[in-house]
Write a structure and sequence with these properties.
Elements lengths: L8 E4 L5 H12 L3 E6 L3 H7 L3 E4 L5 H11 L4 E4 L16 H29 L3 E5 L3 H4 L5 H25 L4 E7 L8 H4 L2 H7 L11 H12 L1 H4 L6 E4 L12
Parallel strand pairs: 1-2, 1-4, 2-3, 4-5, 5-6, 6-7
Helix pairs in contact: 1-9, 3-4, 4-6
């Protein structure tokens, strides 16, 4: 089925990372005109091999505004960029500085990205926005309450507010989100190299495997497409192998 994305101008943030890079490639495979954002990993962004590169620190308001100015007129925005703090820290030991840094590197940058894109939508009268959360935002994540809180806000209050606001400026505008579970990417490579951890986390999944970045990217493309998801808005697609909050396998 034709996605209708051919020739559409698409911005993917965090495209130097595993999921972001695959999102950029997936949109390019549909014939989209890509803008590929990165913060530090220029070589990784270049390795994606598609689109216009734009560098920006998305925690800085002025740089987000510059990114959108350089990106030009957009039809779609996939707000993929985010940071998972590796160290497991219970909340009673969690420094305020890490809490604030994690919220800024996930929730605040998603807000700034969404705001920048919606300002363009206000001028064009059309647009599709896809946010990227995490299963941590749906079921929590011990030792990462800062990350879980940020992703929960993205998948809850922010998403549900934006899907109602976008139609004020674009009658057919849509906002949706994906919530990846454990996904093999540069951000999680160190953890997923541990077979015992993989065995433990997949005990809650019927499919009993971690996702590939391509698995997430395909859902982002489907949600972004007006042809495939034109009557879908305010929804969260969970890409986690059917993960539940209980053990499904005995070994």
């Amino acid at each position: 089925m034709d996605s209708g994305l051919s020739g559409k101008r698409v911005l993917v943030t965090g495209a130097s990372g595993g999921i972001g890079a695959e999102c950029a490639r997936a949109f390019a495979a549909e014939g989209a005109d890509l803008v590929v954002h990165y913060r530090h990993g220029r070589e990784r962004a270049e390795a994606v091999g598609v689109g216009q590169l734009v560098q920006a620190d998305l925690t800085r308001e002025d740089e987000v505004e510059r990114m959108f100015a350089e990106a030009g007129n957009l039809d779609v925005c996939a707000a993929v960029a985010g940071v998972w703090p590796r160290e497991d820290v219970p909340v009673w030991e969690l420094p305020l500085s890490r809490w604030e840094d994690t919220l800024r590197a996930n929730l605040t940058i998603t807000f700034l990205t969404a705001r920048g894109f919606l300002r363009q939508v206000q001028r064009s009268g059309h647009g599709s926005l896809v946010l990227v959360g995490s299963t941590a935002g749906l079921v929590g994540e011990a030792g990462h309450s800062d990350y879980a809180a940020a992703k929960s806000a993205i998948l809850g209050g922010l998403l549900l507010s934006l899907k109602n606001e976008i139609v004020r400026i674009a009658p057919l505008g849509r906002v949706n989100a994906v919530a990846p579970g454990w996904t093999a990417s540069p951000m999680t490579r160190a953890e997923l190299d541990d077979p015992e951890l993989v065995q433990r986390v997949t005990r809650t999944m019927p499919l009993r495997k971690v996702a590939r970045p391509e698995d997430v990217a395909r859902q982002v493309v489907v949600l972004a497409s007006d042809e495939l998801s034109g009557h879908v808005t305010g929804q969260v697609v969970t890409v986690a192998g059917g993960m539940e909050g209980r053990v499904l396998h005995s070994d």
